[in-house]
Specification:
Layout: H1 2-8, E1 25-29, H2 33-36, H3 38-49, E2 53-57, E3 70-72, H4 79-92, H5 98-104, E4 105-106, H6 108-114, H7 120-127, H8 131-142, E5 147-151, H9 153-156, H10 161-175, E6 185-187, H11 194-199, E7 206-207, E8 211-212, H12 216-226, H13 238-246, E9 252-256, H14 260-263, H15 267-275, E10 279-284, E11 296-299, E12 308-311, E13 316-320, H16 333-343, H17 352-362, H18 371-374, E14 379-380, E15 404-405, E16 424-429, H19 445-451, E17 455-458, H20 460-466, E18 473-477, E19 482-489, E20 497-501, E21 529-535
Parallel strand pairs: 1-2, 1-5, 2-3, 4-15, 5-6, 9-10, 10-11, 16-20, 17-19
Antiparallel strand pairs: 7-8, 12-13, 13-14, 16-21, 17-20, 18-19, 18-21
Helix pairs in contact: 1-10, 4-7, 4-8, 4-10, 7-8, 13-15
């Protein structure tokens, strides 16, 4: 989300979920919304039934396409070319919001010059989308002043992921579709408390509330609150940690609620890195593939077995309450963390409400939120005072960094492109029935009966050329590894593109995905790599 944060000052959804129903145009890029965010998809379908127009940019014919007016079936990794071309059309046809640009943005002329060559014809060559479809989608989006934009990891998990988000932010800014109701740029979070975890500083370069560790005044504030000296240097991202462990520089690792063996790219590299550690601790609710390598496993309670708060994708802070007792020796995360801290000589306490009070004291945007208020319902930050109602949409009164900068970004090809040896593009994602690494959903019998088998989607023309039938076992190989998996023949993917859902450990997509990183935020390029396909043999 770094591209969004550096432009608007926030990496969160700018507008509320409820507002979706009042939008005129909904632009979805890099998101299989109906399968991965079905609650939000239902709001979009309600908007569609009220007359909203839906534009989808995605390499696959995802289920939401059924409700779309236009499907821009782009080649994986070509998002910037599409977005810059849409911006070019908006400017050349005079669809831009001149009032918004002059009053609330800067750098427009330099950015405008940077997209002069990004014509629809240019984009068609790179994206594979016909120029007329790009023009039609752009006119629809650019003509509306009640257009909402939604994206997920389909555009962030690339070596140019930050630039993808920046290009999208430029497109939103040139139309002025932000800072008002029924508009906005909205990253949909992938899990139930990803937003809350980010807010609370589960990031290597910030304290709670996205306050930078390198800021001297911020650092002093937290040192005084916590009674200790703090480093002014950024920490490592999770992908950097794995590389450092593989190199023998990182000696110990504490993994909490993650299963990187399944979710990180280039699985063999991840396993080598973890085995190279001197000491590995894993804290989780189940014995995951990663936990099986741990020296110590700390059994954690699940969300129904503890008290606290979650912050959802629309910045809404909500209370969670213990419904059942945790089994066996499982304990809630805060109890475990505070117990370890106590053994290090730090009596930090394990009362979730007290922790929340400290959190809100140190982040002004949360200072008006209390447990007593949350007992009556959720509140969206910013909520700076005890009588403040919360903020459904951001930037009504302006932007935290003054004017929004237009930031030129240029298309760059994926880190790995197809060649004669590896002629297919692999892209990965999720499906409706399984969830993430499957550590929870794959323990549910009815789900496994319905969707318990790994598969790869292949276009009918490719399957005919290769002599592959529906259900045949085949081998998918990249420069990093190989898996055996069953073929699912479908026109959902274009010729030359294949898709594998990430959930299945027995045919894990991340054995073969590319671990090349975005240089700015170190996100791996999980969405594009080159592969070859061969029959599995007898």
């Amino acid at each position: 989300m770094a591209g969004l944060a550096r432009i608007f000052g926030s990496g969160a959804m700018t507008n509320s979920i409820l507002e979706i129903e009042g939008m005129e145009v909904i632009f979805i890029i890099g998101s299989n919304t109906k399968e991965t965010h079905p609650v939000i998809a239902n709001r979009m379908i309600k908007a569609y039934r009220k007359g909203a127009k839906i534009i989808i940019a995605d390499p696959r014919k995802v289920p939401m396409v059924k409700f779309a007016d236009i499907h821009l079936k782009i080649r994986p990794g070509s998002d910037i070319a599409l977005l810059n071309s849409m911006a070019n059309i908006i400017v050349s046809e005079g669809l831009q919001n001149n009032e918004f640009i002059s009053e609330k943005t800067e750098g427009f002329e330099a950015w405008k010059k940077s997209i002069e060559a990004c014509t629809p014809e240019y984009a068609e060559k790179i994206t594979g989308v016909p120029r007329d479809a790009i023009i039609r989608a752009t006119r629809l989006f650019g003509s509306s002043r009640r257009a909402g934009t939604f994206y997920t990891m389909g555009i962030t998990q690339h070596t140019c992921g930050t630039d993808n988000v920046t290009a999208l932010a430029n497109l939103v800014s040139v139309t002025g579709n932000i800072g008002r109701e029924f508009t906005g740029i909205n990253p949909l979070r992938g899990q139930n408390n990803v937003q809350g975890s980010s807010d609370a500083a589960c990031l290597p370069n910030v304290y709670p509330g996205y306050q930078r560790v390198e800021d001297t005044e911020v650092k002093l504030k937290f040192e005084q609150a916590w009674g200790c000296k703090l480093s002014p240097k950024d920490g490592m991202t999770s992908t950097e940690m794995m590389n450092s462990a593989a190199e023998g520089k990182l000696k110990a690792l504490y993994i909490m609620g993650e299963n990187p063996i399944i979710t990180d790219p280039n699985m063999h590299h991840t396993i080598r890195a973890l085995k190279n550690l001197d000491f590995l601790v894993v804290q989780d609710i189940f014995l995951t593939d990663t936990a099986k390598l741990a020296d110590v496993v700390l059994p954690a309670a699940c969300s129904f077995e503890k008290d606290g708060t979650f912050t959802n994708t629309e910045r809404k802070v909500q209370r969670i309450r213990k419904a059942v007792k945790a089994p066996g020796e499982a304990r809630d995360d805060l109890w475990i963390i505070s117990g370890i801290a106590r053994r290090f000589g730090n009596e930090m306490g394990s009362n979730p409400e007290k922790v929340f009070e400290e959190y809100t004291m140190l982040w002004p945007a949360m200072s008006g939120i209390t447990y007593s208020r949350l007992n009556k319902g959720g509140l969206s930050w910013p909520c700076p005072a005890k009588d403040h109602p919360g903020t459904p949409y951001l930037y009504k009164d302006g932007f935290p960094r003054g004017k929004i900068p237009f930031i030129p970004v240029a298309y760059q090809p994926p880190a790995e492109v197809c060649d004669e040896e590896y002629p297919f593009v692999l892209t990965t994602g999720r499906n409706l029935f399984q969830y993430h690494s499957g550590s929870m959903t794959r323990r549910v019998g009815p789900i496994e009966e319905h969707a318990g088998e790994a598969y790869v989607e292949i276009n009918p023309f490719d399957s005919e050329r290769l002599g592959i039938r529906h259900g045949d076992p085949i081998k998918i190989k990249s420069r990093r590894g190989e898996i055996e998996i069953k073929a699912r023949i479908t026109p959902k993917v274009d010729e030359g593109t294949v898709f594998i859902p990430m959930h299945y450990r027995e045919a894990a997509a991340n054995v073969i995905t590319n671990d090349a990183l975005d240089p700015q935020v170190k996100i791996p390029e999980l969405k594009v790599c080159a592969v070859k396909i061969t029959p599995a043999g007898p």
